[in-house]
Design a protein that fits this description.
mainly alpha, single chain, 4 helices
């Protein structure tokens, strides 16, 4: 029960951070672009930048949340399997690594989106 409460709390915190950052990027793309990313806002349509930043934020957030859920699920099963057969360690590490790869894919896609905007 405590794990479920912790998992739900972490997911709510992640969604709150996502909403805050995406709101900032969505409504104030000029401030973020000129100061943090050093993009020329005048050269691009502000609506395109706004939706591009929102897409990049969503891809990263959803990929990270999906990876967290996958690692939690696979990790729990992996610990149970290792308790019974310790010789499965190599296979278990590969499965957990594949679950972590979901977050890396999300970051790569968001970097591609941000490169396309610039």
């Amino acid at each position: 029960m405590n794990r479920q409460v912790l998992l739900v709390g972490l997911m709510v915190l992640g969604v709150a951070v996502l909403v805050g950052l995406s709101g900032l990027l969505f409504w104030q793309p000029g401030a973020i672009a000129s100061e943090v990313l050093a993009l020329e806002v005048a050269a691009a349509d502000p609506d395109v930048l706004r939706w591009g930043y929102l897409a990049a934020a969503l891809v990263t957030a959803v990929g990270s949340l999906a990876a967290a859920y996958a690692v939690a699920t696979v990790g729990t099963a992996a610990v149970g399997a290792l308790a019974e057969k310790p010789e499965l360690f190599g296979r278990v590490v590969i499965l957990v690594g594949l679950a972590e790869g979901i977050a890396i894919y999300g970051v790569i896609i968001s970097v591609l989106i941000l490169n396309r905007l610039g």
